């Protein structure tokens, strides 16, 4: 690629607003979750998932706010559990490390009519999941939707 094409591509990309590509959530909060490390240890007789947490997350974070895309965990009108993903352009359920960050959310009160893929801002208590038998590393508990 020539230098002029690189410059043109960079200037075109820089001029696009966040609404031009609505599949990406804002990064605050997600960077903390992306700092979690996972090491799966499998032997002939044992299975263990070792997790490393950023210092700020080790004891949980009260009142953490995340903006992302909601994927309800159960069908129906009343939603109290969902997965919040940072990036709807990548698959959070494919078993690949290439997807964006995701977190399970437990809402304080069920809400009605939440569409899959809706962009929402949620505030709650981010807690580490210490269970050594699951890859799940954090959950957002006592959560409320504060914006869309």
Q: Could you describe the 3D structure shown?
A:
The protein has 148 residues and is mainly beta. It is 11% helix and 43% strand. The protein has two helices and seven strands. It has helices spanning 3-14, 30-34, and strands at 37-42, 47-52, 61-72, 78-85, 102-112, 119-128, 138-147. The chain has a five-stranded mixed β-barrel with strand order 3-4-5-7-6. Strands 1-2 form a two-stranded antiparallel sheet. The radius of gyration is 18 Å and the shape is globular.
Can you lay out the helices and strands and say which pair or pack?
Layout: H1 3-14, H2 30-34, E1 37-42, E2 47-52, E3 61-72, E4 78-85, E5 102-112, E6 119-128, E7 138-147
Core attributes:
43% strand; globular; disordered N terminus; mainly beta; two-stranded antiparallel ribbon; 148 residues
Overall number of strands? 7
Radius of gyration, whole Å: 18 Å
User: Which structural class matches the secondary elements?
Assistant: mainly beta
Total helices: the number is: 2
Largest sheet: 5 strands, mixed, barrel
Major β-sheet strand ordering: 3-4-5-7-6
Q: Proportion of β residues?
A: 35-45%
| Fraction in helix | 10-25%
Shape: globular
Could you report the average pLDDT, rounded to the nearest whole number? 78
Low-confidence stretches: 1-24
Distance between the termini: 40 Å
Oligomer: single chain
Order of helices and strands: HHEEEEEEE
């Amino acid at each position: 690629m020539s230098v002029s094409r690189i410059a043109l591509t960079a200037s075109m990309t820089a001029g696009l607003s966040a609404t031009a590509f609505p599949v990406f959530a804002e990064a605050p909060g997600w960077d903390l979750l992306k700092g979690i490390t996972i090491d799966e240890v499998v032997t002939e007789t044992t299975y263990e998932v070792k997790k490393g947490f950023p210092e700020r997350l080790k004891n949980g974070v009260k009142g953490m706010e995340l903006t992302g895309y909601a994927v309800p965990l159960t069908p129906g009108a009343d939603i109290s559990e969902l997965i919040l993903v940072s990036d709807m352009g990548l698959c959070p359920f494919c078993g690949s490390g290439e997807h964006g960050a995701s977190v399970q959310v437990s809402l304080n009160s069920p809400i009605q009519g939440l569409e899959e893929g809706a962009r929402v801002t949620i505030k709650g208590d981010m807690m580490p999941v210490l269970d050594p038998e699951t890859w799940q590393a954090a959950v957002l508990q006592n959560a409320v939707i504060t914006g869309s």
